[in-house]
Amino acid sequence: MTKRLMFVFGTRPEAIKMAPLVKACEAHEAFDPVVVVTAQHREMLDQVLALFQIQPNYDLNIMKPGQSLTDITCAVIRGLEGVIGEVQPDMVLVHGDTTTTFAGALAAYYQGVPVAHVEAGLRSGNMYAPFPEEGNRRLTAVLSAVHLAPTAGARHALLAEGVVEDQVYTTGNTVIDALNTTLDRPYNFPDGPVKKALARPGRKLLLTAHRRENLGEPMHRIFAALVRLLDDFPDTTLFFPMHKNPKVRAVVEEVLGGHDRVVFMEPLDYQPFVHLMNQMDLILTDSGGLQEEAPSLGKPVLVLRDTTERPEAVEAGTVRLVGTHEGPIYVAAAELLTDPAAYAAMKQAVNPYGDGAACDRILQALGHHFGLNDRPAPWA
Question: Which one in 65, 215, 292, 343 has a CA-CA gap of 20 to 30 Å to 314?
Answer without folding.
Answer: 215
